[in-house]
Structure formats: C-alpha cells, structure tokens
Write a structure and sequence with these properties.
With 90 residues, the protein is an alpha+beta fold. The protein has helices at 58-65, 81-89, and strands spanning 2-3, 6-7, 10-14, 19-23, 30-34, 40-44, 50-56. A hairpin with a 5-residue loop joins strand 5 and strand 6.
Length: 90
C-alpha cells in the first residue's frame, strides 16, 4: 500500500480491535506520535526515520466518511544552493 511517497510493505489488520498496522519494512521498535486525524505515525527508535502508521478504528472511519486521511511525514526536500547563497550573503 502506498501513501504519498511512502510504500508500506508489511500490513496487518486486527479485526477484533479494528486497527490497521502498516510498516515500511519489518516492524521494529519505534516511537509514536499522534497525527491531526488521531492516528499514530512511528519513527525508528534508533535512526528516527519514519517507519509506520497505526490507524485505529479504520472500518468505523471508512463507514462514517468513505475514506481515511493520514498525515505522514513528507520526504526530505533539498534547499537549492542558489536560494541559500542569497540568504547567507545578507
């Protein structure tokens, strides 16, 4: 499954709890942060890289709104050297 530029290749759904677990690579020890929608995004405990998402109540959300919105970190963006040179020259 893909969200934005992120590809989640390890996906599990807990039917009884209505929780969807999505991981980039194998699940690993991570630190979680809540998204504006109430989901949890996970960052690798050692490298701090984004590594997964947990969506709580996914079937309920789908039933109520027809879709699920997830705020995930954007891939890093490079700052153009020319723009930095202009700022640093001031």
């Amino acid at each position: 499954m893909k969200i934005g530029d992120w590809v989640f290749d390890d996906i599990e759904y807990d039917v009884d709890a209505d929780v969807l677990y999505m991981s980039i690579g194998a699940p690993r020890k991570a630190v979680g942060e809540q998204t504006p929608e109430g989901h949890i995004v996970h960052f690798d405990e050692k490298t701090e890289e984004f590594c997964g998402v947990t969506i709580i109540g996914v079937q309920r959300i789908l039933t109520e709104s027809g879709g699920v919105t997830v705020t995930v970190p954007a891939p890093p963006q490079a700052l153009p050297k020319q723009a930095l040179d202009r700022v640093l020259a001031c």
